[in-house]
UniProtKB/TrEMBL annotation:
InterPro entries in alphabetical order: Atg7_N, Atg7_N_1, ThiF/MoeB/HesA, ThiF_NAD_FAD-bd, Ubiquitin-activating_enz
Gene Ontology biological-process entries: autophagosome assembly; autophagy of mitochondrion; cellular response to nitrogen starvation; piecemeal microautophagy of the nucleus; protein modification by small protein conjugation
One Gene Ontology cellular component: phagophore assembly site
Pfam families in alphabetical order: ATG7_N, ThiF
GO terms assigned for molecular function: Atg12 activating enzyme activity; Atg8 activating enzyme activity
Transmembrane segments: none
Domain Ubiquitin-like modifier-activating enzyme Atg7 N-terminal positions: 12-140
Name of this protein: Ubiquitin-like modifier-activating enzyme ATG7
Domain THIF-type NAD/FAD binding fold: 279-522
Native source organism of the sequence: Hanseniaspora valbyensis NRRL Y-1626
């Protein structure tokens, strides 16, 4: 065979990009790549030699493990930009040349530039199979008689580069017509031949073409042929951008939103804003710890509604509402989970259902139940107590959002006994209080509870109340502010819980709307506290329902156990002594 046979090159593969490719790119951008726009390697896109196509799917991002698939896989790369402007302003020829010339991309079949709009589920992209060309440089070949050569072929690729002058090629990647003496190679091999000729000054290449069974090979000697003197890399032109359906050289645009399941899209994007916090503002933000929390909301009124919304926005989806009330006509305008048509329905159930309407994949639940209250003998019910105890045991965080102080006593006690995070939120006319009760991790800080500053056990405050005392008469913004502070306090605590140097030392925040001030306090635990003192917790742990029953009947019993009664006696005696001394 004559050495003057010219090698021809052909490139006519079509690309098919599906939605799984986009979702994988989006996931990678959001969680790993973030603000970087470094070139990302796509290790395994499927190539079909028969219909000349390459599929870009989620598999393109994986490293292939099934070796039998390997000859049908090609390497690629993608540069995904942060903004559409960066994509538009890219000097595309220069960029392509940089990639094509880079030795590390020698075996890469294609390159993509893209901008993925994560919010709108759209992708602007342009695929390129770089084709290098130099006027005045062609390649000639001659076929050598087969001889025994020990060839190790990397099965992972359709071709391999052994050294600067030795190439191995899968039979699928070229066409040999021995009758007419034609050798047609992929343009990718031409790129390599040009690069090696101009950069490494190779004068002769050996190309082994492996047969289908990988047992035989044909050997070709390929020599560069210069038609003019002094050809350098500056003479290389590059092209290869894919044309669109109208054969125009412009990028493609796909909006995947109509192709994807709306629930799936919702799931994908619901935490987008949270994930974006990690890009720049707060890279250490631990969203997983938030996601794991099981929340119990005791009270599904104004505070319960706002707190659940704020939790949802933080990516906390396991929320149980507890309430026995029904939605009244005055509720929907203040309580954001209720509408006019919900009037008369149970609050806990309606809040749970409506939260699911906001985010269908949230795990909201409800229990229709009235929390037993200290000093209220009408709430003595062992079954209800056991249900509350179980709910608290199964939760990680308990929010106390009820109307009265005495309703907060039993969950404070059980929460402390079970070492749960308890956050108490209460609102007045133009002020609010948010407080995290001390748990075991705060032991050295000696943090107290809502009742630690009381010198009396809570009593029945619900008797003889006029209408303005029965309803929470409060400035409408108060509940929103208190709810936000309560959830943000929880988030701060969870983020810094295991790092004693960080975080808020104070466990109570009081807010005032008359002068828009906030005050942070440390509430220490009180030795004789009616809800969290050691004597109360111990008594509760030993006698459980028997203790609770007596407390619900009469709060004085709790004062006796906690030592508050003795403190009162001491104080009275002190006053008498002072009187006797004429002070
Ligand atoms: Zn206490």
């Amino acid at each position: 065979m004559e050495i003057n046979n010219e090698v021809t090159f052909k490139q006519d593969f079509k690309f098919f990009l599906d939605s799984s490719f986009y979702l994988r790119l989006k996931d990678f951008k959001l969680h790993e790549q973030k603000l970087s726009n470094d070139i990302l390697i796509l290790p395994s896109s499927r190539i079909n030699y028969l219909n000349k196509s390459i599929s870009l799917s989620d598999e393109s991002f994986d490293t292939i493990s099934n070796t039998s698939d390997m000859p049908n896989i090609v390497l690629g790369s993608i540069k995904n930009f942060n903004t559409i402007e960066q994509f538009k302003n890219l000097k595309k020829i220069e960029h392509l040349k940089e990639v094509a010339v880079d030795k590390k991309y020698d075996k890469f079949f294609f390159h993509i530039i893209s901008f993925a709009d994560l919010k709108k589920f759209s992708l602007v992209y342009w695929i390129c199979v770089p084709i290098l060309k130099v006027d005045g440089l062609s390649f000639r070949f001659e076929q050598e008689n087969n001889s025994v050569v020990d060839i190790k072929f990397d099965d992972s690729l359709p071709f391999d580069i052994v050294d600067d002058s030795t190439l191995i090629c899968n039979f699928l990647f070229c066409k040999i017509d021995t009758n007419s003496g034609k050798l047609e190679l992929s343009t990718l091999l031409r790129n390599i031949l040009i690069k090696k000729t101009l950069m490494s000054e190779v004068k002769k290449f050996t190309l082994y073409i492996i047969s289908k069974q990988k047992k035989e090979f044909q050997t070709f000697i390929i020599t560069p042929h210069f038609e003019k003197e002094k050809i350098t890399f500056d003479d290389v032109t590059i092209k290869g951008w894919e044309k669109n359906i109208d054969s125009k050289l412009i990028p493609k645009f796909i909006n995947f939103s109509s192709l994807l399941d709306p629930i799936k899209m919702n799931e994908q994007n619901v935490s987008l804003n949270l994930e974006l916090m990690k890009w720049r503002i707060n890279p250490d933000l631990d969203l997983e710890i938030l996601k794991k929390q099981k929340i119990l909301l005791l009270g599904a009124g104004t505070l319960g509604c706002y707190i659940s919304r704020c939790l949802l926005a933080w990516g906390i989806y396991d929320i149980t509402f507890v309430d026995d009330g029904v939605v009244s006509h005055s509720n929907p305008v203040r309580q954001p989970l209720f509408n006019f048509e919900d009037v008369g329905k149970y609050k806990a159930e309606t809040a749970s259902l409506n939260l699911k309407k906001i985010y269908p994949l949230c795990q909201s639940k409800f229990v229709k139940m009235k929390v037993p209250m200290i000093g209220h003998s009408d709430t003595i019910d062992e079954e209800v107590f056991l249900k509350l105890e179980k709910l608290i045991q199964e939760s990680d965080v308990i929010f106390l959002l009820m109307d009265s102080r005495e309703a907060r006593w039993l969950p404070t006690l059980i929460g402390k006994s079970e070492n749960k995070i308890v956050i108490n939120t209460a609102i007045g006319y133009d002020n609010f209080l948010v407080m995290r009760h001390g748990d075991l991790s705060d032991e050295n800080k000696n943090l107290g509870c809502y009742f630690c500053s009381d010198i009396l056990a809570p009593v029945d405050s619900l008797k003889d109340r006029t209408l303005d005392q029965m309803c929470t008469v409060t400035r409408p913004g108060c509940a929103m502010m208190a709810s936000s502070v309560a959830v943000e306090m929880l988030v701060n605590y969870l983020q810094t819980k295991n790092n004693s140097d960080d975080g808020l030392v104070e466990n109570q925040i009081r807010g005032f709307l008359n002068d828009f001030s906030n005050i942070k306090n440390i509430v220490n635990s009180y030795k004789y506290c009616s809800a969290c003192s050691n004597s109360i917790i111990e008594e509760y742990k030993i006698n459980k329902w028997e203790f609770v029953k007596l407390a619900l009947k009469d709060s004085k019993y709790v004062e006796d156990i906690s030592g508050l009664a003795a403190v009162h006696l001491e104080t009275e005696q002190l006053l008498l002594d002072m009187e006797a001394l004429g002070i």
